[in-house]
Amino acid sequence: MRFDEAYSGNVFILSKQDYKQADAVIYGMPMDWTVSFRPGSRFGPARIREASLGLEEYSPYADKHLEEVNYFDAGDIPLPFGNPARSLDMIEDYVASLLADNKFPLGLGGEHLVSWPVFKALKAKYDDFAIIHIDAHADLREEYEGEALSHSTPIRKACELIGAQNVYSFGIRSGMREEFQFAKESGMHMHKFDVVEPLKHVLPTLAGRNVYVTIDIDVLDPAHAPGTGTAEAGGITSKELLEAISLIAQADINVIGADLVEVAPIYDPSEQTPIAASKFIREMLLGWVGKK
Questions:
Q1: Would residue 268 be called left, alpha or beta, if left means φ above 0 and alpha means ψ between -120 and 50 degrees?
Q2: Three-state SS for 59?
Q3: 112 labelled binding-site residue
Q4: What is the pTM of this model?
Q5: 284: exposed, middle or buried (C-beta count within 10 Å: 0-12, 13-18, 19+)?
């Protein structure tokens, strides 16, 4: 993959053509090799891009226009089908290249395991950073049915990589008893069910810190995002997630990158899930890129 050349397929709306001048790079991680229920998230990045073409370029939430942000859509990393270990290595190498060029990495998933190599690439550059994790699922398992490389494990791996005290999870409403017990005992910060109100309390404690944000679309209630592999009833609304993105934009933190994962468009003929995801990406670009 040549990340300095314009992608030949559909790109996110108003993507610029010059990699070198870009502050942020959008890239796809089309992988669903380890999912435990319904596959299909490898098609998420392409559909998010296509859905973005229906967006207004101006955001009344941020009072900004996409022309004000310099970003480049590099397309999808050509991951080898069915090979999670090699796929994760390729993602880590790619993101390391973006970080070496001082780009803001904005990833489109793909299953949630794709965030794990991004965490590793960030760790190689930053001595200290925190993770904000917004999700329906705890993702704190050590393995799933004997497989350590699983979409149910990335946050447990993150705790081991950067210290559980640097991991902040929001909206969690599903997981094994042992995952919730680990959260209590490890020192990580788990906030169940809600996102907006706990974020208001947590963000001031992260003032001045580098923060990476990973969002699983299934944090939304299935009424708002049916197109995902492991839907969970009882989630938040699209409006609440937009408010959370805005709160992060307004906080005194340095957002060093982000991803949005688990959009599986095949389960949503109405396309409301990729449409919502593209709007979230717009708000992340406008609120987080270049934020100090």
A1: beta
A2: strand
A3: yes
A4: 0.96
A5: buried
Q: What is the pLDDT of residues 3-29, one digit of tens each?
A: 555 555 789 999 999 999 999 999 999
Q: Is 218 annotated for ligand binding? A: yes
Query: Residues 26-38: pLDDT tens digits?
Result: 999 999 988 888 9
Close Cβ partners of 274 (under 8 Å, ≥ 6 residues apart) = 44, 47, 48, 50, 51, 227, 263, 265, 268
The full set of domains in the chain, from first to last, is 24-288 (3.40.800.10)
Instruction: Write the burial class of residue 81 (CB in 10 Å: 0-12 exposed, 13-18 middle, 19+ buried).
Output: exposed
Residue 65 marked ligand-binding: no
Packed helices 115-125 and 84-100: angle between N→C axes, nearest 10 degrees: 40
pLDDT score for 7: 56
Asked whether 212 and 284 are in contact (CB, 8 A), the reply is no
Tokens representing residue 171 in the block: 């909206």
Closest by Cα among 260, 245, 137 to 199: 245
* Among the listed residues 78, 19, 67, the one whose alpha carbon sits nearest the alpha carbon of residue 45: 78
CA 53 to chain centre: 20
d(CA 146, CA 13): 41
Q: Is residue 139 part of an annotated ligand binding site?
A: yes
Q: Give the span between the Cα atoms of 287 and 172, in whole angstroms.
A: 24
Average pLDDT in the 108-134 region? 97
β-strands 210-216, 189-192 pairing: unpaired
State both tokens at 246.
Answer: 């805005």
